[in-house]
Input
Amino acid sequence: MDKERINEAIPHKEVRLVLDDGTQHGVCSIEEAMGIAEKAGLDLVEVAPTAKPPVCRVMDYGKFKFEKEKKDREARKKQRQNQVDTKEVKFRPKIEEHDYGVKLKNVRKFLADGDKVKVILRYRGREMMFQEAGLELLNKVKTDVEDLGVVDQKPELQGKQQVMIISPIASPAN
Output
């Protein structure tokens, strides 16, 4: 699993040696390099196997692995933070005012958290005849959240539902 070869696992006869303080020792035999590492109480780690001659470094391998894993964890954490989720909120064309308020509050909360919102307006049965009312509802949602978000995808009919995507406005604080 580990890409680096350490100590006896290094197959080369000659290596370019870098000491633990970062200074170049030069090209030496693997036995001499192992002796220097052993004398310092550290490991000999192959850091550039494709170089001519291969580069090895005297270091504490356990500490090196720990630092590398810590850096990888931080990178993954940052990647997750930059990821934008898409949340869905579903409406119906003949929605009551209170229900509209609750769903609008959710849309505003999602946008404030930095997530995209997919607003879905679902039609059932004869409601397909009232697409103008549905479009008015989607436009009302758009105007009610324009301080927090901007429309990415204008309302578009997909089968028996209209879909609109709203992205959060990038705040200058970030």
In short: The first strand starts at residue 14 and ends at 18.
